[in-house]
Task: structure prediction
Amino acid sequence: MRAVVLLSGGLDSYTAAAAAKADGYELYALTIRYGQVHVAEIEAARRVAAFLGVMRHVELDVNLAAFGGSSLVGDGTIPKDRALPQPAESVPLTDIPSTYVPARNTIFLSLALGWAEVVGAEAIVIGVNALDYSGYPDCRPEYIQAFERLASLATRAGVEGYPLRVLAPLQDLTKAEIIRLGMRLGLDYGLTHSCYEPTGEGGPCGHCDSCRLRAKGFEEAGVEDPLCRV
Result:
């Protein structure tokens, strides 16, 4: 079995990819340089792709910074020390942060879908989870299901009766549960990068949503974050 995995270099996509590999999939990793201000995650994606032993790793340039609309592409400031999002089942989707990149997952999944058809993959893997879809509309389970339906209609594979699946193995997991899964899979989280606005030395800022959710996850999992030792 083959799967195209959207690999950002973050903790979630790394774990989702590893879970798919454990389920028997050969991995084809796709990393998008979408105009993000800080590209440390691209270097992290290369590290985790090597660790996972992917069949091929493609880095693609799609400059969403030309549109703007997100602090991750330099349009506005990265929010710091705000109230952390809660699991989606307990909070309505009303507070979409400035770090949301308009239509990013739709664009990324579409690119992954094209490559999946070329390599004959049965699935696309994405690392969205319960905390993501408490703030980002394109991380919700109903969105993933809708894209999978689109894929069945829009591809040769779907027309011929072999529709691709969109796998979100972390969909219902908290950050702590994701970390525990990764530890069981033998992952090295020291290879990853999570921070939205790293320091001049490339270290985590400790104050953005991503840093704080990561820290909370490791604390709740009872595991030391290897990046805190660097």
About this structure: The mean pLDDT is 92. Residues 2-229 form a domain with the Rossmann fold fold (CATH 3.40.50.620). Helices lie at 11-22, 40-52, 104-119, 141-154, 156-159, 175-184, 209-221.
